[in-house]
Amino acid sequence: MMQWTQHLIILPILLPLLTGAALLFVAERNRVTKSMISLASCVFLAFVAFLLLGVTGSESSFSGVYLLGNWASPFGITLVLDRLSSMMVALAAVLSVPVLIFALARWHSAGSHFHSLYQFLLMGLNGAFLTGDLFNLFVFFEVMLTASYGLLLHGSGPLRVKAGLHYIAVNLAAALLFLIGVSLIYGTAGTLNMADLAARIPTIEPDRRMLMEAGAAVLGVAFLVKAGMWPLCFWLPSAYSVAAAPVAAIFSLMSKVGIYIILRLTMLLFTDGPSAGFGSNLLLYGGMITLAFGTIGVLASQALARIGAYSVLVSSGTLLAVIGLNNTAATSGALLYLISSTLTLGAFFLLVELVERCQGAGAGVLAVTMEAYGDADDDEPEELDGATMPATLAMLGICFATCTILLAGLPPLSGFVAKLGILSAMIGVGSIGVPPTGPALAVAALIILSGLSTLIALTRAGIRTFWSSIEVTVPRVLVVEVVPIMLLLSMLAVLTVKAGPALSFVEGAVASASRPMTYIDKVMGEQPLLLWRDLNPQVEGN
Amino acid sequence: MELVLAVAIGIMTGCGVWLLLRPRTYQVIIGLSLLSYAVNLFIFGVGGVKSDEPPLLLEGVSTASISDPVPQALVLTAIVIGFATTALFLVVLLASRGLTGSDHVDGRHDSR
C-alpha cells in the first residue's frame, strides 16, 4: 500500500501548474482575487515543502520515488525526492512567499499575467529539482526559462527589452546545447533515466566513453550558462539588474538551479568508475575565475542592483569552486551557503528598489546616463496605496546593514556560519592531518577576499545612500514592502540559530547524494502499484 | 545516408552559428532556427539512421532491425518547445524594434 505522503511528491509541480492555469481565466481587473489565489497557493506550497522536508529528514521507510503513470523505473519518468531535492523545493517555497507579497504592493499590476508566469516559474523550478529523468529535466528547464522570459520583460521599457533580448538569445542557444548533450548521452548510454544512467556509465566501453563524456560536457555547458560561470556569465548582470525587483529576487534562485543540477549529476554519474571526477577541475578553476570576476564586478559597480547581480556571480563562483574540490564536508558547507546566499540575495534585490527610491535627487548623475540609454521607469506602476511604513529610513538602514553583514559573511549571521563551514572543511579543523592542497588554499583566499570587497562596496553604497546624500528624500514605503524583506531576514536569523541542525541535515543530504548506489537501488527497486486489472486477470477481455 | 545527414547537420550548424553572431535581430532569429533544425536532425540521428523500419516491437522481429522510438519522441518535444520559444523571441524582437527604432541587437542606430 502506498503511503499518502508518497503522493505529496508531485504536488510541488501540480499545484503551481493548476494555479497558474486557473489564474489565466481570471480577468486582469480582478486583481485582488488573483493575488489571493496566487498567495494561497504559494503558502500551501510552502506547507507541503516543509512536510516533505520533515519526511525526508526523518529516517523512515519513505522511498521518495514517484513513478509517473505507474511505469516501472527505467521506462517511465520518475520523480525522486531525497534530502537534496526536498531542501531545494523548500528553499524555492520559502523564497516565493515573501517575494510574492512584495510584488503585491505594486509590481504585479505593471503588466499582464504576472501571477500565472510566477506560478509557472515555480512549477519549472520544482520540476527541475524533483525529476529523475534527463529529458524531463529539459522540459522543466524550458518551462522555467519560458516563464522567466515573460517575467524579465514584466514592466517593459527599453532597458528590459534589450536585456531580455540578450537573455533569451543566450538561453535559447544554451537550450540547444542541452539537447545536443542529452542526445549524445542517450546515443552512447541508451537511457535517460538518471539512476539507470548512473548504473550504466561505469560499464560503457572505452570507445563510446569519450562520446559520452563529450555529451556530458556539452550538457554541463548548458547548466553553467544558467549558473553564470565565467566566461558564460556576461548576460547575467545586465539581465538581473534591470529586472523588476521581485523578479530579480526569484531569479537569484534560478541561477542556483544550474548549480543544483551540476552537483546532482556530478555526484551521481561521476563518483565511481573510470569517469570519476570528470569535469571537476573545470568546475574548480572556472568557479575560481567566476569568483574573482564577481568580486571585481562588485567593487566596480555603482548602482546597487548591479552590486546585487555581481553578488549572484560571487555566490555561483563560490559554489562551483567548492563543488569542484570534491570535498564532501566542504560541499555540505556550500549547501548551507547556497540557502543563506539565495535568501540574502532575494532580500537584497527587494531592498534595492526601496533604497533607490530615496535617491531621488542624488541620482542626478545616474539620470543623465539613463537618458542616454532610455528611461528605465517607463511603465512602472505609480500607484501606492496602503499603510506606509513608520520610521522608513531607519528601517531601510537596518535591513541594508543586515544584508551587508549577510552578503559579506561577517559574524554573527548565517552568511558567516556557512562560510565558516566551507573554510573549516578546507583549511581548518576538517583538514587536520591532511595539509590543504594548493587549490583549496586559493579558493579559501578568494572566498575571504570576495567577502572583504562585498563589504567595501556595500559600505560605500550605504554611506552614499543613507549618510552623505545631498538631499535625502524620505521615500514612501509601504508596510507590505518592508515586511517581506524582514520575513526573509528573520528566516536567515532562524537559520543562524538553527545552524547546527541545518548543517547536519545538509551533511545527510550530501552523504546520501554522493552514494550513487543507494540512489540507483532506490529508484530501480521501486515497483509499480498493482492495479485491479493485474489482480483479477480473468476479467480481462470482458 | 549517414554522410548526407552529417553534412546537412554540419552546414546548418555552421550557418546557424554565423548568423547567431550577426548584429541584426532578424539574422539572430534565423540563426537560432537553423541551429534548432540542426539539433533536431542530430537527435534523430543518435537513434541510428535506418529507413523503412517501423519503431514497433513485433513478434518474430529482432530488436536490431527496428528503429529506436525514443529519439523520435524526444525530437517531437524539442520541435514543439523550440517553436514556442522562437515565437516568443519574435515578439521580443518586434518589441525591441518598436522601442529602440533599430533592429540592432543592442538597439543602436549607428551600426552597419
Structure description:
- The complex is a heterodimer of chains A (542) and B (112).
- Helix content of chain A is 72%, strand content 1%.
- Chain A has 542 residues and is mainly alpha-helical.
- In chain A, helix 14 runs antiparallel to helix 19 and helix 17 packs antiparallel against helix 18.
- With 112 residues, chain B is mostly helical.
- Chain B is 65% helix and 0% strand.
- Chain B is built from three helices and no strands.
- In chain B, helix 1 packs antiparallel against helix 2.
- At the A-B interface, helix 6 and helix 7 of A face helix 2 and helix 3 of B.
Largest sheet of chain A: 2 strands, antiparallel
Termini Cα gap of chain A: 27 Å
Structure annotation, total helices of chain A: 22
Class derived from helix and strand content of chain B: mainly alpha
Keywords, separated by commas or semicolons:
heterodimer; A: 542 residues; mainly alpha; two-stranded antiparallel ribbon; 2 strands; B: 112 residues; 3 helices; 65% helix; 0% strand; elongated
Topology, element by element:
The complex is a heterodimer of chains A (542) and B (112).
Chain A: H1 4-8, H2 11-23, H3 31-57, E1 65-67, E2 78-80, H4 83-105, H5 114-130, H6 134-152, H7 158-189, H8 194-200, H9 206-227, H10 235-242, H11 245-269, H12 280-300, H13 304-324, H14 328-357, H15 364-373, H16 392-408, H17 414-426, H18 438-467, H19 479-497, H20 499-513, H21 516-525, H22 532-535
Antiparallel strand pairs in A: 1-2
Chain B: H1 2-20, H2 25-46, H3 69-100
